[in-house]
Amino acid sequence: MLVPGMIFLILFKYTPMYGILIAFQEFNIFDGISGSPWVGLEQFQKLMVSDEFGRVFRNTLLISFYKIVILFPIPILLALFLNEVAKMWFKRLVQTIVYLPHFLSWVIIAGLFVNILSPSGGLINEMIVALGGKPISFLIDNNYFRSVLVLTAGWKEVGWNAIIFIAAIAGIEQDQYEAAALDGAGRIKQMIHITLPGIAPTIVLMFLLRIGHLLEAGTEQVLTLYNPVVYETGDVIGTYVYRVGLGKLDYSFSTAVGLFNSVVGFLLIVSGNWLSKKLLNRSIW
C-alpha cells in the first residue's frame, strides 16, 4: 500500500532535487546540467551583495509577518465562536460562506478585487467618495498594497484554516464542559479554561508550520495582483525568482535564490520546534 506514495515522493519530490546543482553552475540551457561550467558559490555571492534581493527579502519578511500577526489568530477565534453557536443551521450557513473563497483560484480573486478596489467605479472607492473622500488607487499605491495582500489572503483562507481548529475542538471530551457547567463556569470561562487549552497543541503545530513558510509570502497571490509600480513594497522572493528565472533566463541565480529560501525555511521550522519544546513543552517531533 505504501508503494504508490513512495513512487510519487521519489518522482516528484526527490528526483527534482537534482536541479539544485544549477545553483552552483553558470547554467546554459543548451549545454544542460552535465555540460554547464561549475562556479561554486558565485551565485550566492551575487545574491548577498544584490541590493535588489535585499529589498525583496525585506518585503517577503514584512508581508509574512503581517499575515501571521493579523491572520493567524482569526481562524482560532472563528472556530471558538462557531463552537458556541447553538443553532446548527446558522452554524452551517456561516461555515459554508467562509469556506467557499478557498476554492476560488487567485486569478479569479484578483479579478474580483481589481474591480472592487478600482479607483473608477469600484465599490470601496464609491463608498469613500460618498463619505467625502477622494478615490484611492489601492493596487498601484505602495502605501496600501501590502494591506491589500493581507486583506485578500484573509478573505480567501481564514474560513478554510478554521476547519483544523474546529476539528480539534470536536475532539475535546464533552465531560469537561459538563463538569465545568456544574461548577458554575459560564461559556466564556469554559472557552478560556477548556477549549483553548484543549486545542493548544494544534495551535502550536500550525504556528510552527506557518513559521516554516515565512519566506513563502504567497507568490501566486502577489503575481496576480502586483505590477511594476509596486515592486518596491510587493516584490517577494517567489516573484523575484519568477522574474529573474523566466524573464531574464538567469536560471542559476534564480535557483540559488530558491535554495536559499528553502534552507532558511528549514532552519526556521527546526528552530521554532526547538524553542516550542524548550519553552512550552510542545513540539512537532
Global morphology: globular
Number of E strands: 0
Would you give the CATH topology?
Answer: MetI-like fold
Mean pLDDT: 88
Using the coordinates above, name the CATH class.
Answer: Mainly Alpha
- CATH-defined architecture: Orthogonal Bundle
Sketch the topology as an H/E string, one letter per element. HHHHHHHHHHHHHHH
Uncertain ranges: none
What is the CATH homology-level superfamily? MetI-like
Distance between the termini: 25 Å
Sheet/helix structural class: mainly alpha
Report on the biggest sheet: none
Description of the molecule:
The structure is a single chain. This protein is an all-alpha fold. The protein has a single domain (49-279), classed as Orthogonal Bundle (MetI-like fold). The protein contains 15 helices and no strands. α5 crosses α9 and α14 (237-247) runs antiparallel to α15. The two termini are 25 Å apart.
Question: How are the elements arranged and paired?
Answer:
Elements: H1 3-14, H2 32-35, H3 42-49, H4 51-71, H5 73-83, H6 88-99, H7 106-116, H8 123-130, H9 145-170, H10 174-182, H11 187-212, H12 219-225, H13 231-234, H14 237-247, H15 251-279
Helix pairs in contact: 3-15, 4-9, 5-9, 6-9, 7-12, 9-11, 11-15, 14-15
What tags apply to this protein structure?
mainly alpha, globular, transport, MetI-like, transmembrane, transmembrane helix, MetI-like_sf
What would a concise description of this structure say?
This is ABC transporter permease subunit. This protein is mainly α.
